[in-house]
Amino acid sequence: MPESLIPVTLLTGFLGSGKTTVLNHLVRRPGLARTLVIINEFGEVGLDHLLMSRLPDDSVVEMSSGCLCCTIRGDLVSTLKDAHWRFSRGGESQFDRVVIETTGLADPAPIVQTLMTVGVITRRYRFDGVVTTVDLTNAERTLDTQPEALKQAAMADCLLLTKADLAEPAAVTALEQRLLAINPSARRLRVHNGAVAPDSLFGLGLFDPATKIPDVARWLNEEAFLDAQDAHGHDAHLGHGHHHDHDLNRHDERIGAFCLVLDQPLDSGLIDAWLDQQLSLCGRDMLRIKGILNVQGRSGPLVIQGVQHVRHPTMELPAWPSDDRRSKLVFITRGIARETIEASLGAFINAWQQGETSPVGAGKDRQANPT
Ligand SMILES: Nc1nc2c(ncn2[C@@H]2O[C@H](COP(=O)(O)OP(=O)(O)OP(=O)(O)O)[C@@H](O)[C@H]2O)c(=O)[nH]1
Fold first, then answer.
1. Same domain, 152 and 262
2. Which of 170, 201, 232 is the last residue of a domain?
3. Taking the model in full, what pTM does it have?
4. Which segments constitute the CobW C-terminal domain (predicted)?
5. What is the mean pLDDT of the chain?
């Protein structure tokens, strides 16, 4: 993954939660002059829908700050693909960062999948992270009733909690606890009228593209899992959270996160084969997977990332960030308990060690093809 790949940030959040306010603030920052902002103007229509059917106006605005702004043309793939020649002068691209603002009802998953895997995009761009705005004044109800909003929060790498000035402090605390249970590893920031430091929204990937050193401490945020655990007595998962209250309709009774830590180096190919099997069985409910793996025969760690059924190609990095060489995997799931995943992985490892693992042909191939 060359350093020159252009980072792409997905800015999402429910209707009226403050996305445009954040964006307006960001594009005024001098450091972001060379940013291409891609928006879509279809209020009520999700971007995933748009990817397939709509051909909106092809309007491009150059903002006074120097940022470029365009609406989605056709689909996201062609917009990003064409952006290079459309926004270049003298053969040189005019932007070195992209922010995509989705509609409030968008499902971020297909967009992230597109950014992670479509060849014409991954040759030039790298997915940086999902930033989700959450309106503190009404998020409790929105999360209760709007599955899209919940998914946007669950998939975020960074949560921007907006309108704290209008919210009751007790409500803010309660919501922060709820978000901790849904997505402990996401960075959480309170934002007043969109004022947020760009640095806290960018560089959300699993490693620093310049040094190729994984920033595990930041993206895993292990302590937050412990906090979530302390707050709820055990894993922030499957309705064991603080919401034992009486509203049975809460969707996030089933959404939660956990982190598996594996002490021993893993056989080459094992996790790939196991994950492929898991994703084909229950990818829909694996909202987000991120991990760093210690694999036998590799001097550096492997990093993995996935969104529902789709995984980013596994990458090997040159070095570990610290002496801690354990494999760590974060799962944000819908209705899949940690115990289920642990049992599945345990059984898979046993079968693998006995050479019986062939649900995806991986076990049988591993001698011949040790990658
Ligand atoms: N008081 C207060 N108002 C805010 C804050 N952030 C945003 N707003 C207001 O909330 C309203 C909605 O903000 P937008 O930025 O348009 O929200 P959005 O997510 O882009 O909205 P849609 O594109 O319609 O989904 C606007 O009137 C903003 O001025 C904040 O921190 N405090």
1. no
2. 201
3. 0.82
4. 255-349
5. 79
Examine the domain organization and report whether 41 and 89 are in the same domain.
yes
pLDDT tens digit sequence for 289-344: 999 999 999 988 999 999 999 998 888 888 888 889 999 999 999 889 889 999 99
d(C-alpha 359, C-alpha 362), whole Å? 7
Same domain, 240 and 162: no
Q: State the distance from the centre of ligand 1 to the C-alpha of 26, rounded, in angstroms.
A: 14
- The answer to the question of residue 108 being in a domain is yes
Query: For the chain, how many structural domains are there in total?
Result: 2
In angstroms, the Cα distances linking 358 to 270, 295, 334, 341 are 11, 19, 27, 18
Ligand 1 closest atom vs CA 17: 19
Q: Which pLDDT value is given to residue 12?
A: 94
DSSP secondary structure, 91-102, as one string: TEES-SEEEEEP
Say how many Å lie between the CA of residue 268 and the centre of ligand 1: 48
Task: Single out the residue of 185, 135, 126, 182 nearest to residue 157, CA to CA.
Answer: 185
Phi, psi dihedrals of residue 112, rounded to the nearest 5°: -65, -40
In angstroms, rounded to a whole number, what is the distance separating the alpha carbons of residues 136 and 13? Answer: 12
Full domain range(s) for residue 87? 6-201
Residues 137, 261, single domain; the answer is no
- pLDDT tens for each residue of 9-53: 999 999 889 988 888 888 778 788 788 888 765 443 333 333 222
Question: pLDDT tens across 231-262, in order?
Answer: 554 444 433 333 334 343 445 557 888 889 99
Please list the residues that pair with 305 across neighbouring strands: 290
Which residues, 6+ apart, have CB-to-CB distance to 341 below 8 Å? 258, 260, 278, 331, 333
| 255 alpha carbon – ligand 1 mean position (Å) | 26
Q: What gap in Å lies between CA 351 and CA 167, rounded to an integer?
A: 53
Report the alpha-carbon distance of residue 23 to residue 196 in Å, rounded: 10
Asked if the model's pLDDT at residue 268 lies above 80, the reply is yes
Ligand 1 residue neighbourhood (C-beta within 6 Å): 13, 15-21, 104, 133, 162-163, 165-166, 192-194
